[in-house]
Design a protein that fits this description.
Length: 197
């Protein structure tokens, strides 16, 4: 966990970049499992090479004078496309717009927690950076209702009654056909007998 002194140094660096009108300022607190080399990234942009260098100079000067802290490493000052100031516990990245879009550190470190100055200075209000909200539980599927013996008996009775009705209807149709065929047979026989007379 970063000490209050480190948080003050990061806050001072944040004020320095804002003082030089840095654009798109982002402060990231890196997840604990991947922060073996640093705790914070301060990322910002300048509109041209001179502004990028001026931002780097302001951060370096403010931390040197006010906190007596020097960067462990400085990289990219001459080209001013991406200046990196490594203070061990935090790293300041100052980009020109093109390089920032190309490297897109915020996307590469999307597991990091974005902080405001207030959250930085009062970390208790900040959720744990690597903590993820538990996944929402899906509602459990309803188990089919247990069928009682009475319900099963009623269902089988309805089924049996339905089968009887079907059987009765089909039996009635067969009987009707037999009666009709018997009538026609009887009528034919009567007509044949009448002709013979």
């Amino acid at each position: 966990m970063p000490t209050p002194e480190i948080r003050e140094q990061v806050a001072l660096a944040l004020k320095a970049v804002e003082n030089k009108k840095a654009e798109d300022v982002t402060l990231l607190q890196l997840p604990r499992e991947s922060s073996s080399f640093t705790d914070y990234f301060l990322i910002c942009s300048g509109s041209n090479a001179r502004q990028v260098q001026a931002i780097a100079d302001e951060v370096d000067e403010r931390l040197s004078k006010d906190m007596r802290v020097e960067p462990n490493a400085r990289e990219g000052y001459q080209t001013a496309e991406w200046i990196l100031l490594d203070y061990v516990d935090f790293v300041v990245h100052i980009f020109n717009a093109e390089r920032r879009a190309y490297y897109d550190l915020e996307r590469l470190w999307k597991s990091a927690h974005r902080l405001t100055l207030q959250e930085l200075l009062h970390p208790r209000a900040v959720p744990a950076p690597a903590a993820k909200a538990p996944a929402a539980k899906k509602p459990a599927k309803k188990a089919p209702a247990k069928k009682t013996a009475a319900r099963l008996a009623a269902k089988s009775t309805r089924a049996a009654t339905g089968k009887k009705k079907i059987a009765a209807k089909s039996g009635a149709k067969k009987s009707a056909k037999k009666v009709a065929s018997n009538r026609t047979s009887t009528q034919r026989a009567a007509k044949a007998a009448a002709r013979r007379k």
